[in-house]
Amino acid sequence: MLNKLSKQSIASSRRRRLVRAVLRLALLTALFVLVAFPPRSKLDLQLLAWRRARWPPAPRLPLPEPRAGHVLGAPAAIPRLVLRTFWTRDPAAIAAAARNGSDPAKARLAWFSSWTNLNPAHIQLILDDAAGDAFVKSHFAKSVVDAYQKLPLVVQRADMIRYLMLYEFGGVYADMDTQCLLPVEEW
C-alpha cells in the first residue's frame, strides 16, 4: 500500500513539474513571438490593447533629439536607430580607451565609427548598465522588471536589454565589436 502511494505521489509530482515546464515554455514562446513579430492583425491589436489596459506601462524616458533627416517611427520603415550596450555611453570615452590601450579591442573605435560614418542619419543609442536598468524600469511592466532583476549575471541582463530595446524602439542592434560595411538602407 505504501509503495503504491509513493509511486502515485512521484507520478503526480512529475506531472506537475511537466505542466509547469510546458507553461513556462508557452510563456517564453509568446514573449518571443511578440518581440520578433510585432502585432499586425486586428486581433493582435485588440490583445495588445487588453494587455496595456490591464498592465499600464511605466513612465517613459525621452529619446535623444533626432538629427536632420531622422525618420523615427516612419510607417513601413525601420526606425533610424543603432542600438547598443557597452560599459560607457560616452563616445569620447570609447575613443580614449581605444587610443590609450585600456580597451583590449584596439579596432573598437574604427568599428564604432563605421556605423556613424556609413549611417549619418541614424542615431546611435548606447546604454550602459545604469541606463539599461533605468530603461527597463521606465518602459516595462513590473513583471518584466522583476524578470530582468532576477537575472544573475550582468551579461544576461545585457542580452535581455537588446531584445527590450528592439521591442520598444525598433531599429538595428549592433554589438560594439561589429563593423558596419554597408549603409543600413542597402541591406
Describe it for me?
There is one protein chain. This protein is mainly alpha-helical and 187 residues long. Helix content is 56%, strand content 6%. It has seven helices and three strands. The chain has a three-stranded parallel sheet. Helix 5 (129-139) crosses helix 7 (154-169). It is globular and about 70 Å long. The model has no long low-confidence stretch (mean pLDDT 78).
Largest β sheet strand count, sense and barrel closure? 3 strands, parallel
Strand content: 5-15%
Cα(first) to Cα(last) distance is: 69 Å
- By DSSP (H or I, 4+ residues per run), the number of helices equals 7
Q: N-to-C SSE series? A: HHEHHEHHHE
Features:
three-stranded parallel beta sheet, 187 residues, 56% helix, 7 helices, mainly alpha
